Amino acid sequence: MMSSSSVSISILAVVAMQLSIIHNVLSLNQTNSYLQHICINSEGTYKQKSSYESKLKDHLDSMSNILDYGFVHGVGGAGSKSYYIKVQCRGDASESKCRSCLFTAFSGILRRCPNNKGRIIWYDNCFLYISEIYTFQKVDYKHYLYLHNAKDVSGNIKLFNKNTRALLYKLKEKATRKEQEPYTRDYMYATGEESLGTMKLYGMMQCTQDLSVKNCSVCLDSIIAKLPRCCNGKQGGRVLNPSCTFRYELYPFVKA
C-alpha cells in the first residue's frame, strides 16, 4: 500500500473496476473513488495537530477558492517547516467536484500518512501532493503506481497492447498540442476512443498544469513506457504519477 520515494508499486485494480453495474456510474464521472497513496518517509515527519498541520490546513482552505481551472499550487512555512502543495483535478471534473475532492484528499492523506511531511494521494477526480521539496515545473521520475483490471482481454493480447499503445500516443499528441489555451480545465488533458472490432477502447491522459508542454510530453512518454509492466493484456489500466497520468478502459469513463 505504501512506498518509499524510489519504489514503484503494482496494484491489483479494485473490484469496482470489474463490475459492469459500476461501469455505468463511472462513465458519468459521478464517483470519486480513492485510488492509492504514497507516504514519502525520506522527507521526515512532524507532530500531529501541531502549528505546521494547522497552517497546512488553512493554506489548503484558501487554495480551494481558486480551483476554477482545476489546478493550484502553493508554498508556505519557513525553514524546516516549509512545504509545497500541488493539486490537479481531472479535466472533466467540475469546480465543485474538484473542491470536494481536495477536501476529501486532505482528510484521506491525514489518515493514511498522519506524520509524513511528504505524501501523495490519488482519487478519481483529483490528486494531492504535499512535500518539503519544491517540485514546480519538474517531472517526477520517482513515484509511479500501477492499477489494472483483474481480467485479461480475450483474443490477441499482443494486438490489443499494440492498439492501446497507439491510442495513448494519439492522446499524447492531443494533450501536448502547442495551440492549446492555458489556464483552462482541459489544458494538457486529452480523451479519445478507438474501435477494436466489436469493442471500443477509451482513453484519458493528463499532465499537471505547472509543466511546460515539452515536459508534459517527456512525462507522458515515461508513463506510456510503463504500459507492459502495468497492464499487459488487461481490460483496463492506469499509471499514476505526480506529474502525469493515463487511463484506458473498455467502457466510457469520462464526460464527452
Topology:
Blueprint lengths: L8 E4 L7 H7 L7 E12 L5 H13 L7 E6 L6 E7 L5 H18 L3 E8 L2 E6 L13 E4 L8 H19 L13 E8 L2 E9 L5 H12 L2 H5 L5 E4 L3 E6 L7
Parallel strand pairs: 1-7
Antiparallel strand pairs: 2-5, 3-4, 4-6, 5-6, 7-10, 8-9, 9-11, 10-11
Helix pairs in contact: 4-5
Protein described:
- With about 260 residues, this protein is α+β, with helices and mostly antiparallel strands.
- It is built from six helices and eleven strands.
- It has helices at about 20-25, 50-65, 95-110, 155-175, 215-225, 225-230, and strands at about 10, 35-45, 70-75, 85-90, 115-125, 125-130, 145-150, 190-195, 200-205, 235-240, 245-250.
- It has a six-stranded mixed beta sheet with strand order 1-7-10-11-9-8.
- The model is unreliable at about 1-30 (pLDDT under 50).
